[in-house]
């Protein structure tokens, strides 16, 4: 079991809410059986000229500053989602008697942008996650505070960008409305709740955020590339794979939350916000049910009906 320093647990009291949560470095981390990894340690040296971090990514405080913004504007996600839930039916009503916009090229570029963005995010989070886990054990990123584990450097920046990207991903719905496509419950519920949760988890610097961001980057890099190919008239045959990956993401997310919840009660000085974990588990459970229903409707019931027609 990992042994954590005495300053590992973050003070989440209201008195320090408006302060940047910085922590003194442990003088001799090896005495605790682990070493806080650096992102560049996770990459082979020969890859650095190709996928190494840019100068703007080499920041020790970028995520901390983004976190301060989230705490200061904690209400922003609620306002945006409130407007989003009003805008969707309003937009559908406005478009009801209008001709649908084609938007083929903008949609293709949008999906390609999100695919590239997600793939880049994966390159900035997955190597660090794997390196830290293999070096320090499976509980390191579950319990080690964000400021020491992945906050400084490229990984922290891209976890922060992941959170902020949930705002721009609402544009997905705008494309559906303008093209007069169905905006089902799974779509708008997923977009709304994931933004609310990510904004809250980011403000509280949940240690397991790196797991959630990495998984989402991985799945979205594949999903949006699938959408890109479909939007340019080359719809792949591996749509089922995308849905399976989405379901797997929910199951892994629930597992990570359960491990973190258990670690908070068994690992001394394990960091984390319990109320945030409860929200995460409920969110992943809801997504699992909804994506499972989509899977059955699309590939089981729908597939059976298609086979009968043929």
From TrEMBL:
It is found in: Membrane. One of its GO terms (biological process) is fatty acid elongation, polyunsaturated fatty acid. The keyword Transferase applies. Its EC number is 2.3.1.-. GO terms for molecular function: fatty acid elongase activity. It comes from the Eukaryota. This is Elongation of fatty acids protein. Belongs to the ELO family. It catalyses: an acyl-CoA + malonyl-CoA + H(+) = a 3-oxoacyl-CoA + CO2 + CoA. The keyword Transmembrane helix applies. The chain crosses the membrane at residues 73-95, 107-126, 185-204, 210-229, 238-261, 281-300. PANTHER family: ELONGATION OF VERY LONG CHAIN FATTY ACIDS PROTEIN 6 (PTHR11157:SF17), FATTY ACID ACYL TRANSFERASE-RELATED (PTHR11157). One of its GO terms (cellular component) is endoplasmic reticulum membrane. Keywords: Fatty acid biosynthesis, Fatty acid metabolism, Lipid biosynthesis, Lipid metabolism, Membrane, Transferase, Transmembrane, Transmembrane helix.
